[in-house]
């Protein structure tokens, strides 16, 4: 059962009222069809008003929802013959990143993604989806294997960020992330990245250098969390909602800024409401991306990836800002 978010309270209350009337109709055999139809029409309008005009902080809440589908959920619905691979051949296996080989509509692919837990026990095992260096090195090992055997790579991004603990730093967290950025830029196979939840900081970027970068409608992608930004900017983490509105971290904002390629529609109320239907929407985007990228040569794939990231942002030279005498 999905947990309801605060802004959904009017919708939940109206649904409860409709269910109450339906039960009353069945038990007392009283015809309340007209009243139920009126409430259902009002519910439809209320859902449109709320879900059609979500604010950035509300999207952050949906992206963090405990029941939001994870990488393994989407692997189950999108791919066949998935074989998970473990370890980085240097230190160990990191459960915060999962990956392996699979088939997508008969085509061999490599799929990699952040993996968080659904309950406390699993979250501890998965380190709350925050990878250590060995997680990123495992991901890179699988990417280079895919490059060798000419398999397209699909990455699912869903992390608050790379684990910032002492052990991770001792094992080379920054180098592992930087290495992934460097190596992904030069891969000779199609790379498709999809933000399915939170895309936080370098921990997300380490799986995010692709030919196409897509985002679910209610996911986020940012250099820092709204709480972290609020603490830095205003010395008050409680102003996270204000920060979320300022940072431009939602899919619609990032699409407008040219950071992402496509916004993947979400089912009404968020991806956690209907995983299978959400997977179908992602399936459409993956199929379109592969159909475009599969026609590019190795050199063209690298060049397309280079140009994609080169054009993000606005640049000016020193001479552009210096006064002319």
From TrEMBL:
It is an enzyme of class 2 (transferase). SUPFAM superfamilies: ClpP/crotonase. Residues 38-292 form the CoA carboxyltransferase C-terminal domain. Pathway: Lipid metabolism; malonyl-CoA biosynthesis; malonyl-CoA from acetyl-CoA: step 1/1. Transmembrane segments: none annotated. GO terms for molecular function: acetyl-CoA carboxylase activity; ATP binding; carboxyl- or carbamoyltransferase activity. It comes from the Bacteria. It catalyses: N(6)-carboxybiotinyl-L-lysyl-[protein] + acetyl-CoA = N(6)-biotinyl-L-lysyl-[protein] + malonyl-CoA. The keyword Magnesium does not apply. Residues 22-49 form a coiled coil. GO terms for cellular component: acetyl-CoA carboxylase complex. The keyword Glycosyltransferase does not apply. Its EC number is 2.1.3.15. It holds the Pfam family ACCA. Keywords: ATP-binding, Coiled coil, Cytoplasm, Fatty acid biosynthesis, Fatty acid metabolism, Lipid biosynthesis, Lipid metabolism, Nucleotide-binding, Transferase. Component of the acetyl coenzyme A carboxylase (ACC) complex. First, biotin carboxylase catalyzes the carboxylation of biotin on its carrier protein (BCCP) and then the CO(2) group is transferred by the carboxyltransferase to acetyl-CoA to form malonyl-CoA. Belongs to the AccA family. Acetyl-CoA carboxylase is a heterohexamer composed of biotin carboxyl carrier protein (AccB), biotin carboxylase (AccC) and two subunits each of ACCase subunit alpha (AccA) and ACCase subunit beta (AccD). This is Acetyl-coenzyme A carboxylase carboxyl transferase subunit alpha. It comes from Halalkalibacter hemicellulosilyticusJCM 9152.
């Amino acid at each position: 059962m999905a947990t309801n978010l605060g802004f959904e309270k009017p919708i939940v209350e109206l649904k409860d009222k409709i269910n109450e009337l339906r039960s009353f109709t069945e038990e007392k055999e009283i015809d309340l069809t007209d009243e139920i139809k009126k409430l259902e029409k009002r519910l439809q309008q209320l859902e449109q008003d709320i879900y059609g005009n979500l604010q950035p902080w509300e999207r952050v809440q949906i992206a963090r929802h405990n029941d939001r589908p994870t990488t393994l959920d989407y692997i189950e619905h999108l791919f066949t013959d998935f074989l998970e691979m473990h370890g980085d051949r240097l230190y160990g296996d990191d459960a915060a990143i999962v990956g392996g080989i699979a088939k997508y509509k008969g085509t061999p692919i490599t799929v990699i993604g952040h993996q968080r837990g659904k309950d406390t026990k699993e979250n501890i095992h998965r380190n709350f989806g925050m990878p250590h260096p060995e997680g990123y090195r495992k991901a890179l090992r699988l990417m280079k294997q895919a490059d060798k055997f000419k398999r397209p790579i699909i990455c699912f991004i869903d992390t608050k960020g790379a684990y910032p603990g002492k052990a991770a730093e001792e094992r080379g967290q920054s180098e592992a992330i930087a290495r992934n950025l460097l190596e992904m830029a030069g891969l000779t196979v199609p790379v498709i990245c999809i933000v399915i939840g939170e895309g936080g900081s370098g921990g997300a970027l380490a799986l995010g250098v692709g030919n196409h970068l897509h985002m679910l409608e209610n996911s986020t992608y940012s250099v820092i969390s709204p709480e972290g930004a609020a603490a830095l900017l205003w010395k008050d983490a409680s102003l996270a909602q204000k920060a979320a509105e300022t940072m431009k971290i939602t899919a619609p904002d990032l699409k407008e800024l040219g950071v992402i390629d496509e916004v993947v529609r979400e089912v009404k109320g968020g991806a956690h409401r209907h995983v299978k239907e959400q997977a179908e929407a992602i399936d459409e985007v993956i199929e379109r991306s592969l159909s475009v990228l599969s026609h590019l040569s190795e050199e063209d794939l690298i060049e397309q990836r280079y140009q994609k990231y080169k054009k993000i942002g606005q640049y000016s030279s020193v001479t552009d800002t210096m006064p002319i005498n």
